[in-house]
Amino acid sequence: MTALDQAHDGGRSAAQWPRLALTGLVTLALLWGAFHLYQLQQPLFGLILLALACGIAVVFGSNRFYGARFIFPGVAAVLIFIAFPVIYTIWIGFTNYSSFNLLSKPRTVEVLLSRGTVDPDTEEPFAVAPEGDLYRVWLPESGLLSEPLALDGSEENAALAPADAPAALLERRDAIALRSGLGAATLTAPDGTVLMNAGLRTFASVQPDYELLDPDTLRRTSDGALLTANPRTGFFETEAGERVPPGWRVTVGWQNFERILTNEGIRGPMVSIFVWTVLFAGGTVVFAFGLGLLLAVILQWEHLRFKAVYRVLLILPYAVPAFISILVFRGIFNQNFGELNLILEALFGLRPHWFTDATLARVMILIVNVWLGYPYMMLLAMGFLQAVPADHKKAAALEGASSVRTFFSITLPQILPPFLPLLIAAFAFNFNNLMLILLLTRGQPDIPGTAIPAGKTDILASFTYRLAFNDSSQQFGLAGAITLIIFVIVGAVSYANFVAMRRAAARRAPQ
Amino acid sequence: MIVERPRDLLVKKILAHGFLLLFLALILFPFLVVVSISFREGNFTVGSLWPENPTLEHWYLAFGLDYVRDDGTVVEPPYPVLLWMWNSIKIGLIAASGILALSVVSAYAFSRIRIRGKGAMLDGLFLIQMFPTTLALVALYAIFDAAGEVSPMLGIDSHLALILVYLSMITLHIWTIKGYFDSVDTALDKAAEIDGASPWQTFRYVFLPLAVPIMAVVFVLAFIFVINDYPIASVLIRSEENLTLAVGSRLYLNEFRYLWGDFAAAAILSGLPITVVFLIAQRYLVSGLSEGAVKG
């Protein structure tokens, strides 16, 4: 509405007001979402939405930011779904967010306070008697009838008094429809006991398990023990230190990082996983590059016929969706009924354990990844090889250099610099090649004797993924901490790449 | 190289073709195996590589049809492959269109419109893009878990949430298209400006028609990326009928329910169209890949 008014007040051209109206509507919708998130105790996400709403209102509402309109949507998408999650993940690394500490503190208190023990002696069935817009609860066994209740979901208390059975009672089905109202109501019997809804059919005196004394203290009714909120662990604890689950999320500082560095059960596997990640990414790039370059050189040979056919067949591994190829390999390498072992057994009587032997599993992963990656390198190499001037090669040949010598002294030095940034990018990509590991081995076989699930073929990214999503105890905090370590490594690699690209661009420019 | 003796040349030719053929036999072996298995009986049979009693059972199941065996037992399809394929294609088309729209508009602005801090923004985008979204999965999960409380349409297990995440994968494409726009003569903008065109009109009527070839490349690249994504979809999508092909296919080769034959037919059925699209597009991709990446 404000957008409309503005359009009329300002006397702007009629063509503008549909845009302003749309901007206003989108802004209002986002503001509503932000408010809703704030109410749901997600102030951080609410803030993001609020910022987005303000951004849209300013950039699309005012004519001063005409140029920014073009890039705002793209930049906003990158900031919200890449930059913010990265920062948020790092922040999670400093918390104890996990399946044990899942909720916010107010929700935890709510959960604890809602727990109660039903006193079986006082349990009795009930019926609901309508009275105008209100209802009375009738307890037939003790012959008590309550004062009228609204049963609209708000907390109510009504006194019970002896009475005759009401004339009309609701059907059970209709009474069940009122259960949210019944659940919020308490009834006080003439002797002072308080009765609560204890299930679909009964009312009983329910003894709450915990009593809130002040925001940070609970009393356990069974033994009277005092529980204090421990802001460092995110649990209510007894004086003896006994923790009462569930806990809530708190920031724990460097605790996750300390665990990674000091706990031998985590540090040991982390180091071996890191080494394997580097070997895996580096090995893939080296082998795929070598193979791709070799094939490109052969395909560029002037005397070779059927080049087009070879080319299409050679890039097939790149053209088939990777998730399908990887799963195909998973089947082919299968120990018991995989086709590869079938052939190996027929020829050599061998039956290698591709999935249970760590070394063989790693070899298998490298084979599959080189198979997936060499066509990309080949395509790139073919492009770069064409850029090498033929005169240089001819001159070398006239000087009597062999073709191998020419390749290593003339061709390779010329194509390596422009190739370098792409090789670094390939390394960074494979460093986090989650899909390959998840689809092929899921990190199996496991490293024995570790504190957390870790596999011999896990790379850092898949290790984090399993920690967060694949286990009984989802350790988001620890996963976030490890992610930060990966970020630092990837950041360094990215920066190196950035510099390499700048150099490559600078080298091209003068030509 | 310039002067070669005919006999040496012949030996070299035989070596080259021999090497390529041997290599191709190794490389293409998995594809041949999969085709053979899709016609083989049963899901485990350790039989010969050439199916002895070819059957169409796996193909019936892949197309979502019941198959009646000779002995009268009816086999039902284990998973809704066609539905997954439809999900993947739907998400792929919508996300790729969105990625294309966002990146082409941004690329035009970065190439032609004067905005303060443009250079820093470009560098920033480039660095951010190096951090793969697959590492921020925990945060993405938490974000959409919370968003789902506002509206289930935006929560976990919704295609819209998945598309929103894919929409952020634009930085590389912005760079590619910007490189293309940078090579367009500035006289064109001047002419449009003199004729009274606003920057938006210049973009809409001058630059957009020029960019059609590069846009096709970006669209195909984005589409293939989305179809191929496993990690993000596996975290955000839960229920079987909402799965994408990449996440669903993995169910076939579960340790406890190993459906090798059914998988083979489903894999060919779903992989073939994507492969064909890629092979048609690859000519244009190569130039886009090497040029867009190096242009700074």
Automatic annotation (TrEMBL), chain A:
<comment type="similarity">
    <text>Belongs to the binding-protein-dependent transport system permease family. MalFG subfamily.</text>
</comment>
<feature type="transmembrane region" description="Helical">
    <location>
        <begin position="20"/>
        <end position="38"/>
    </location>
</feature>
<keyword id="KW-0813">Transport</keyword>
<keyword id="KW-0472">Membrane</keyword>
<comment type="function">
    <text>Part of the ABC transporter complex MalEFGK involved in maltose/maltodextrin import. Probably responsible for the translocation of the substrate across the membrane.</text>
</comment>
<dbReference type="InterPro" id="IPR035906">
    <property type="entry name" value="MetI-like_sf"/>
</dbReference>
<feature type="transmembrane region" description="Helical">
    <location>
        <begin position="311"/>
        <end position="333"/>
    </location>
</feature>
<comment type="subunit">
    <text>The complex is composed of two ATP-binding proteins (MalK), two transmembrane proteins (MalG and MalF) and a solute-binding protein (MalE).</text>
</comment>
<dbReference type="InterPro" id="IPR035277">
    <property type="entry name" value="MalF_N"/>
</dbReference>
<dbReference type="Pfam" id="PF14785">
    <property type="entry name" value="MalF_P2"/>
</dbReference>
<protein>
    <recommendedName>
        <fullName>Maltose/maltodextrin transport system permease protein</fullName>
    </recommendedName>
</protein>
<keyword id="KW-1003">Cell membrane</keyword>
<feature type="transmembrane region" description="Helical">
    <location>
        <begin position="476"/>
        <end position="498"/>
    </location>
</feature>
<dbReference type="InterPro" id="IPR000515">
    <property type="entry name" value="MetI-like"/>
</dbReference>
<keyword id="KW-0812">Transmembrane</keyword>
<feature type="domain" description="ABC transmembrane type-1">
    <location>
        <begin position="274"/>
        <end position="497"/>
    </location>
</feature>
<keyword id="KW-1133">Transmembrane helix</keyword>
<dbReference type="GO" id="GO:1990060">
    <property type="term" value="C:maltose transport complex"/>
</dbReference>
<keyword id="KW-0762">Sugar transport</keyword>
<feature type="transmembrane region" description="Helical">
    <location>
        <begin position="353"/>
        <end position="374"/>
    </location>
</feature>
<feature type="transmembrane region" description="Helical">
    <location>
        <begin position="70"/>
        <end position="94"/>
    </location>
</feature>
<feature type="transmembrane region" description="Helical">
    <location>
        <begin position="273"/>
        <end position="299"/>
    </location>
</feature>
TrEMBL record, chain B:
<dbReference type="InterPro" id="IPR000515">
    <property type="entry name" value="MetI-like"/>
</dbReference>
<keyword id="KW-0813">Transport</keyword>
<comment type="function">
    <text>Part of the ABC transporter complex MalEFGK involved in maltose/maltodextrin import. Probably responsible for the translocation of the substrate across the membrane.</text>
</comment>
<dbReference type="Pfam" id="PF00528">
    <property type="entry name" value="BPD_transp_1"/>
</dbReference>
<dbReference type="InterPro" id="IPR035906">
    <property type="entry name" value="MetI-like_sf"/>
</dbReference>
<keyword id="KW-1003">Cell membrane</keyword>
<protein>
    <recommendedName>
        <fullName>Maltose/maltodextrin transport system permease protein MalG</fullName>
    </recommendedName>
</protein>
<keyword id="KW-0472">Membrane</keyword>
<feature type="transmembrane region" description="Helical">
    <location>
        <begin position="14"/>
        <end position="39"/>
    </location>
</feature>
<keyword id="KW-0762">Sugar transport</keyword>
<feature type="transmembrane region" description="Helical">
    <location>
        <begin position="258"/>
        <end position="281"/>
    </location>
</feature>
<feature type="domain" description="ABC transmembrane type-1">
    <location>
        <begin position="85"/>
        <end position="281"/>
    </location>
</feature>
<dbReference type="GO" id="GO:0042956">
    <property type="term" value="P:maltodextrin transmembrane transport"/>
</dbReference>
<keyword id="KW-1133">Transmembrane helix</keyword>
<feature type="transmembrane region" description="Helical">
    <location>
        <begin position="122"/>
        <end position="144"/>
    </location>
</feature>
<dbReference type="GO" id="GO:0015423">
    <property type="term" value="F:ABC-type maltose transporter activity"/>
</dbReference>
<feature type="transmembrane region" description="Helical">
    <location>
        <begin position="156"/>
        <end position="175"/>
    </location>
</feature>
<keyword id="KW-0997">Cell inner membrane</keyword>
<keyword id="KW-0812">Transmembrane</keyword>
<dbReference type="GO" id="GO:0005886">
    <property type="term" value="C:plasma membrane"/>
</dbReference>
<comment type="similarity">
    <text>Belongs to the binding-protein-dependent transport system permease family. MalFG subfamily.</text>
</comment>
<dbReference type="InterPro" id="IPR050901">
    <property type="entry name" value="BP-dep_ABC_trans_perm"/>
</dbReference>
